[in-house]
Amino acid sequence: MAEKLNATLRSSKRSWQQLAGTGRSADIVGASLAQACARLVSLLVPLITMPWTVTYLGQERFGIWMAASSIVLLISLVEGGVSSALVTATSRAHAIGDFQRIRHLIASAFALLIPVAIGFLAVVALIAIWTDWASLFKIKSTIGAAEAPQVFFTIAAITAISFFVNVGTMVRTGLQQIPLVSLWEVLGKLIALPALAIAIMLKMGTPWLVGALFGVPIVISGIGVIQFFASNPVYRPRLYDASWEYSRGLLHGGGAFTAATFAYLIAISSDQFLIAAIVSADAVTSYSILSRLFAIPFLLTSFVFFAQWPAYASSMARGDEIWVFRSFYRTLVAAIAFSLLLTLILIGFLEKILDLWMGQDIHTPALLVWGMGIYAVLSVAEAAIRHLLFALDARKELIGISVAMVLINVPLTIVLLHSIGVAGAVLATDIAYFCCIIIPSAAIICRRLLRYASEYK
């Protein structure tokens, strides 16, 4: 009798989970469509603006902009992944209806980030003043050397503002309000287009172009965050809501995000800095153009993984691990197949695409092109795996594989840049990504799946 009762309960649990899974799948689809619109705009804006900026600034000044961006992105890791940690924490609290905990998380995040932002800007200001930019990036023009520290600090100031904006957007993501977050993101990107056009028409310098293209979207998203807190007082943080207990939890959770982000930035952004330092600043331009082009598969699939993140975290909090892994497997296979097909199309029609897009001769060695193609597929697989590990809160595993990625990628990039040129940067990233991220992550997920399956039985 007891066995029959247990079997009935297990059957009821499975039926409920299937029904809940259907609802979660619908939420993911809705969030994915919203993110798809935002990613489409994010894809189109660089495709539209890159020819404008390269033509207006020239390859050297544009290369300085890209190289300076990579340095700031690396320094911005002092944020500690606090805002990213809010997604999983908020999703879990929301799953059990603990609104007070969400408010404590928000207040603690702001309390952490205020001194971090101030210290970040102070360090950046000192770097901007004391660095010999002309020697660092092998700058040939006087205007490029003069603008370099200004561009560097402008990017840093926008990044510091984004620390606070991201708290609001990540909380809304954890609450599965991704469509509204995407709406403000799209609005900011669209307003940035005329702002950039005006800056170019008025013949403004590179810092103004940076502010128009990257500062305007952050400001618009910030307005969306203010509107969210104004219309949802239950989430509005107060000074006494901040506590060290929640701050410590965010820092611990943020460590995994910081490690993963650091590995990603080392893989992508540091390449541009190393190319500028080892080869030249103008060599960064062709690399940046190809990396933007071959980022299309990632941009057209990553919105699905981002939408799944809070849904997976919420499901894990409810104990429905099997649905999570089934959904992940289907998404991963479809995303890899799509990215592989799209990458082959990009490689096959590359010359025509560059002629239509840039309207000028871009140096594209075959080794660099195929290296970018391999990375386009690997980055899609890595993004799917990374977001699942975020939802699983696999902090130690993420930190371990990310550290391994950094230790392998940086020296390998330097060696290959000296030996085979610009293509060495992306080939080093391909090797490090596959060996240090893809294979270990797959092993971690399989181990978790087996553990959950045994518990489920």
Task: Walk me through this protein's architecture.
Helix content is 87%, strand content 0%. The chain has 18 helices and no strands. The protein starts with a helix and ends with a helix. Helix 4 packs across helix 9 and helix 10 packs antiparallel against helix 11. It has 457 residues and is an all-alpha fold.
Descriptive tags:
single chain, 457 residues, mainly alpha, disordered N terminus
Number of strands: 0
Rg from Cα: 23 Å
Average pLDDT level: 80
Strand content: under 5%
How would the blueprint of this fold be written?
Elements: H1 2-57, H2 59-75, H3 82-95, H4 99-130, H5 133-136, H6 142-174, H7 178-201, H8 206-231, H9 244-267, H10 269-278, H11 283-293, H12 296-299, H13 302-318, H14 321-348, H15 350-358, H16 366-392, H17 395-420, H18 423-456
Question: In a nutshell, what does this entry contain?
Answer:
The protein has 18 helices and no strands.
